[in-house]
Specification:
Layout (H helix, E strand, L loop, with lengths): L15 H9 L5 E5 L5 H10 L2 E6 L2 H9 L4 E3 L2 H4 L8 E7 L8 H11 E9 L4 H10 L23 H10 L2 E11 L6 E5 L4 H4 L2 E8 L1
Helix pairs in contact: 1-2
Length: about 210
């Protein structure tokens, strides 16, 4: 199921999971980026892959930054607005670092696989060993580079683990085509990415999945 990760594209300053996502998207395809933020991924995909990219972003400030980049982005909510897209409208529907903020993650995933041939999902892994150790020793909700918020200010309302998401995919009959583990590298600001292994639920700070309907 997993293969060696492809080399990361330039620019090197882009968020590592977005750089990896760009290598999973085929050239000249139709892409919808859900929760596209400032449009960095859409811009990269347009330049590197020649995609026909669209975006949906909850914040007006994010939409404004995307439009300033010349991107086709509308304001919308993943929980309510994906139902307005027709079946099979895109080759890839991307949800990076956002599914844990959705009110109905399973429904969002279902809609993504309805309107796209493939779904790409990344999120922080709440089962990382540092989080487990923090809870065990301090008895407090952990804060890490992947989850830097205090419990009372976090936007993440459905924190899940790699194992939780794999179980969700199994229950929904979703096919996992490729999956990767992500953790912060030895140098500040760097991250390492490898295909998942039996230890990934313990060692991965973030995870990334390429999915399709069974």
């Amino acid at each position: 199921m997993n293969a060696e990760p492809p080399s990361l594209p330039t620019p090197a300053a882009i968020r590592p999971d977005l750089a990896l996502i760009s290598t999973l998207v085929s050239d000249n395809t139709r892409v919808l980026d859900v929760g596209c933020g400032d449009g960095a991924l859409l811009e990269l995909l347009a330049h590197e892959r020649g995609v026909d990219g669209r975006g949906i972003e909850l914040s007006q400030a994010g939409v404004n930054r995307c439009v300033a980049r010349g991107l086709s982005v509308i304001q919308g909510d993943a929980d309510t607005d994906l139902s307005g897209y027709p079946d099979g409208a895109f080759d890839y529907v991307i949800l990076s670092q956002t599914i844990q903020q959705a009110r109905q993650p399973a429904q969002v995933l279902k809609q993504m696989l309805r309107i796209g041939k493939h779904a790409i999902v990344s999120f922080p892994n709440f089962a990382h060993w540092r989080m487990r150790l923090n809870l065990l020793l301090l008895g407090r909700m952990p804060r890490t580079n992947a989850l830097p918020y205090s419990w009372y200010e976090t936007p993440n309302i459905h924190q899940c683990t790699l194992a939780d998401f794999e179980l969700l995919c199994r229950d929904m009959h979703v096919r996992i085509e490729r999956s990767f583990s992500v953790w912060h590298g030895p140098r500040p600001g760097t991250r390492e990415m490898i295909p998942q292994s039996a230890w990934s639920n313990l060692t991965a700070e973030e995870v990334l999945f390429l999915l399709s309907a069974s």
